[in-house]
Structure formats: C-alpha cells, structure tokens
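Possible regression after last week's pipeline update?

I re-ran a chain I had predicted before the update to compare outputs. Posting the input and the new output here so someone can diff against the archived version. Not blocking, just want to make sure nothing changed silently.
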Amino acid sequence: MPANRRQGCRRSEIMSTITQHDLYRLIDDANARGERVVVATVAHTRGSTPQRRGAKMLFFENGQTAGTVGGGCVEAEVWAEARETMRHARPALHHFSLTADEASEEGMVCGGTMDIFIDVWQREE
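New output (post-update):
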C-alpha cells in the first residue's frame, strides 16, 4: 500500500497525473499558438502527501489546466503561485506544509510537506 494511503491521506480518484508524452504535446501546442505555459513540478516530498515527486500540473494562459500536484488546498496555493509566475516569468521553488497544524485548519489529513518548482515555458523567438 502506498505511503500516502497508509498514513491516511485522502486522495480523490478523479485527480490524474499527466504522461510525459501528453505534457510535452500540450506545451508544444500552446507554444505553437504563441501562449506561455506554467509548469508546476513536485520536486520533493516528505511524509504523507497527495502526490509523489515528479507529478506535474500545467497552467495555460486561457485558464485551463492539465495534470495535478495534489488537489485541494495545495493545488489552490499552487494555482495562485502559477498566476504570479505567468505574470512575472520568474521561476521559483515553493514549500507547502500539510503538517498537523495546517492540515487540521484546512480539513486535510496528509500531514507531510511538498516542494513544488513552478516555471513558465514559452517559445523562443
């Protein structure tokens, strides 16, 4: 049984990861249209988390998304950081805590921490 299930982390069955092939196809399609894409990648996890290292989520200029980095509050925070990255084109590593204090306030049950790298990809002129 995966660690996140053993430790009681609820994970929606409708969340889906994105295959590497689809990831690059979607980025290429957006870039071909002249659009930038923000890519959020789970770089490191500790403890019980809703996604593992390497999980990716794409954020498009038109507001659409693909993939997941965990759902719920973490994904909402990542979404906010992705909008900033889209605006300012400044990549950064962000730390998200799902530990007991934060988790109980938000109704989460994971209890781990996640580092997520957020970067903007755009076609070079």
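Follow-up from reviewer: compared with the archived run. The two ends are 47 Å apart (CA to CA). Marking as no regression found.
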